[in-house]
Specification:
Chain lengths: ~700, ~700
Amino acid sequence: MSAEQVSLEALRHLFTARNVALVGASDRSTWSAMIVRRFADFGHQGQLYAVNRDGKQAHGLPGYRSCCEIPTPPDLVIIVVPAHSVASALEDAADAGVTSAVVLSSGFAEAGAEGERLQAGLVATARRRGVTFFGPNSMGFANIAGGAVATAIGTRLPVLHGGIGIVSQSGAVSNEISKFAHQQGMGLSFLCATGNEAMVTPADVIDYLVDDPATRVITAYIEAASSTDRLAAAARRALAAKKPIIVLKVGTSAMSAEVAKAHTGAMVGDDRVFDAACEQLGIIRVRSIEEMMVTAALIEAVGPLERPGIALASVSGGGCGMFADLGEQHGVPTPQFAPETRAKLAEILPSYASTLNPLDMTGAVLQDTSLWTRALPVLLDDPGIGLVVTLMAMPGSEAEMATCRVHWPVIAKAYRDAGKRPMLIGQVIQPMGPEALAVAEESGLRDIVFGMDFGTRALGHLARWSRRVALGADVLAAPAALAEPPDLSGERATLDFLASQGVPVVAGTVARSAEEAQATAAALGGAVAMKIASPDIAHKTEVGGVRLGITSKDVGRVHDEIRAAVASALPDARIDGVIVSPMRTGGLELFVGVTRDADWGLAIAVGLGGVWIEILQDSAVRLLPINKGQAREMLISLRAAKLLKGYRGTAPVDLDRLAEVIVAIGNAALALGPKLAALEINPLWVSGGEIEALDALAEWRD
Amino acid sequence: MSAEQVSLEALRHLFTARNVALVGASDRSTWSAMIVRRFADFGHQGQLYAVNRDGKQAHGLPGYRSCCEIPTPPDLVIIVVPAHSVASALEDAADAGVTSAVVLSSGFAEAGAEGERLQAGLVATARRRGVTFFGPNSMGFANIAGGAVATAIGTRLPVLHGGIGIVSQSGAVSNEISKFAHQQGMGLSFLCATGNEAMVTPADVIDYLVDDPATRVITAYIEAASSTDRLAAAARRALAAKKPIIVLKVGTSAMSAEVAKAHTGAMVGDDRVFDAACEQLGIIRVRSIEEMMVTAALIEAVGPLERPGIALASVSGGGCGMFADLGEQHGVPTPQFAPETRAKLAEILPSYASTLNPLDMTGAVLQDTSLWTRALPVLLDDPGIGLVVTLMAMPGSEAEMATCRVHWPVIAKAYRDAGKRPMLIGQVIQPMGPEALAVAEESGLRDIVFGMDFGTRALGHLARWSRRVALGADVLAAPAALAEPPDLSGERATLDFLASQGVPVVAGTVARSAEEAQATAAALGGAVAMKIASPDIAHKTEVGGVRLGITSKDVGRVHDEIRAAVASALPDARIDGVIVSPMRTGGLELFVGVTRDADWGLAIAVGLGGVWIEILQDSAVRLLPINKGQAREMLISLRAAKLLKGYRGTAPVDLDRLAEVIVAIGNAALALGPKLAALEINPLWVSGGEIEALDALAEWRD
């Protein structure tokens, strides 16, 4: 996380700069020439100046030796001088009153130890002088909608204007994203590559874009989640504003060693934590650039669905089949039409057509375009359908372009007459070249989902995000950490602490002798579980420290056997005694583990215990804190959820009570404060309405 | 399945016709004009004639009233006359000695009962006259490599020649496939849309293409699997010839009612059977047109991998991350390089570069192209790597095209000097327009994987198919069906039959009275399982007909209770008695079910029983017959396979013996002959080396 968060005001100043000085500008440099070309390409609105050692003009811009010489002080400097000269360039700019900078120069943290030192120095200088800089080793930004440009990212002309903002950590990837967007005719509002992000992180830019009215969809490519607090806050604001954030995150970094040690950590993995964060924050997570941008264009056009269902109107039966198959795979809700919708369709369509969703209107519509005019309003009016997508082949030849010229305007009019924005889908992804764009513009049909494959993924994202928007952002206050967290060494101490935090735990006593063990067992009645109590032993079974289902007559003997086995296996372990607890049988064993993620803090994992968690990796993960509803959702999302609901004669588990217990465990972990590394309850025993933690283990950070 | 299989010789005659008559040709018909244009577009080699009522020339072709009037008898007629005139046109052609036809006319089986009658009549006429026809309601075929054209499928010019054959049931989809192929610069050898496939099915065309030397990859879009015997035979020949078949199949048809009744049928579903068929036959199954064609182009270029590993050489770290993530998701094997490879790379690459796969060569290679020349041969020489894919941005602008002009020839030369065919991958899918194609041709770098998303899917298919090619096609002889299959009514009769076929089954006796039950239990010793024996009761538990773990003193009483419960629930059921068997506890319960698929015949499903199969749908499916190796693979592919290998103290199952038993069950089902609908062993009890079928049920087709 960045040490100090850049204010929204500073970001606004940076991203809306008018007067810009290019420091290091030179006619001999293709690099600085390229940056200057970008001003024109993207339509920078403001004065431009060249600053260089000789004060020579460059690329036709007036030249100065120092920013201080520029008659109108610049709002922003773009620095392209070699790495070792960047700090003094920054000082010079600060002397001229400049508070925003973009450092494109490389040779910093990406280039080894010496570069890291340089970068740290640069940050210190910037902080001292009150300058916010973007980079270094960055390709800069283009606030395309705002006419503020400071970038070397390649342009594709004509620049297409629209509502998609692109935030990328990588310059190369930002280039690929914007290339793909242009190829598909998608318009952009903002584009940047954060580079080394010494001061300004992707989370900062995302937070800024949440407030940018020109940006209606935020897309981000990130390689590591930094500034997670700011990202979370931005995501909550975006969700409230119904502005989607679509993230492509790659690279599952090595888990931090102390987390990997704990069972939970190994099971969860930081990529699952990132997934959990996305789900909780309403961030759409995608796996490729194409999926990201096709999703962005779709949501930019339609916004959140007001009715959950999605319908397809198709001229091809094959298209319906593909849509149904891929839609099911990607979670596209395609409910059947209401009876009145089907009745009306039956009157309109040929007798051999079906009236199912996806709807094959048959090739008849190619002969009789009035079928569009008559059938589309019926679909658009269906009470369960929030979006109708029309499948028509996109043009791949002149003959096909002619067909589009006939059908597109009719389709567009049918949507518009129903007060809806038209939405086409093609069977395969095709570029949206100038000619196709022109026909689309003429037809008033500008929105296209690119291909069944990416399209159904995008529609699935749209449906899930729409549900998430309807639920709203949940901001839960984390319970305060205890001023003095207890020293939880050993199972019984951990269970007793959990009990103090409202978690039901099994009864149990640490017996110091065979006689005490016998007396405890007698008092409990029935069979007992016996376990060694030691602050030094985490894995008790492996040293003969656990014996289950002991009847009272054997308790004394088993006590001595446990002590002997442990003394033999681990002669140096400190021994507190032997825990005697009532034996629990039947029911189900759950696993509840809290682990600390390096980026996101504490996360909780819940799964059925034993074979389920170890063999099936059947678990649900959320960031803490969680509330009861979320805990319930976690339980229900398990593959083994049916077992909880009662299976083959077992009593159904009290899910409400179980959810409360899981919330209490999460809150107990938060109460233990920042030193906690992991807290594991394994098993949490559940039988109908009875719930008890039978064993627990806390681990601490060094 | 088609009643009579069209011979390869007839297909060869059809698809290589030189002299072609267009029956129904007319200058006033845009339809016939379009077909004539296709001859030129696709480069038909042979004489063309027009046949119509008036014998008028059309589209510049000489006109005749009858095929019999044509001086050189045609090899093929293309029929475009209205549906009711097609049969007489076929008769006329037959009179002229024509044996091949393409019927483009619609109004047949696709248009209701009357059309179905017409189509049946047409088939009868064709069979009587020895004519093989393609269609009706078809868009025809273009044997592009062979210069034989009879199609209305849209062309995109210039036609690109290559080794991909396209077989589609749907005309609209064939158009989308060929459009996408052209857009990406992929060359075709063959293209067809089978339409109603009254005589010639996609399987027939695939079988033909296996022998077509110009076709190096076969792609097929199908909506229903017909001619499965021929498809299976073609797939085995293709696998032996190392020619991939890539299938996009949509639409999971409703399961046949009699199969759905059985537990197995509901669990398996015909789509899983199709999956199983593809896996067994080495057919590559894909989910979208793009995935199909990107995979086709990749495999056309590289063929089966001789070494299993795939490496990426990249100029972008972000590209490496995406490749790693998506590659893992899609099963791309990216092993680490050998130590000597890493040592050599460390000498070549900048000090801050890693030497891992995927390999980030860093932006340094953009400055110094000799890095390609030095590093690529090292990768290509790695003993574990069968394919090196180089990631470079594809051109999206003139500036990028210039970059490609610099790098592509260097990359291509590095591959060729190492005796390898160069292979690029782009981060996103981009069209391959004429300009990019020209640069590619100049550079000698013609093979491109289109984007990380589709590309990693294609590479995963390539890797799996290469392994499958190495294993070879397995042609197993099915055991002959018994001449007189026994009447298996009831559990015990079924178990006894299975025992006769080498399947170990639990001991058991049908007791006719409480006394007999007691005597049987006493003879067995230990607890027993007791179940009602009735040919009329499939679900015994639901009527109180099953009691487990009965100790000997209770056997008489329980016998009477079972009889009473069943008599009360089903007073009319015929009762043979009560089966008394030894009780089996511990170990694992498996489910083995054989079901008859409407298209593919008998398929076998194996899974762990109880909760595993019902809640997790954890099962493996194969077509019968299977051999021991395949049965073992099925077991190992289960999510719950770890349980079989011994889990938390349970003895590992004897997998070899278990595989033998599963093969025996499959063979027993085959022995029961074509009337068998389903055969279910549930559970098959397994404990270490002990294996016993505890219950079994056979169901029969009406």
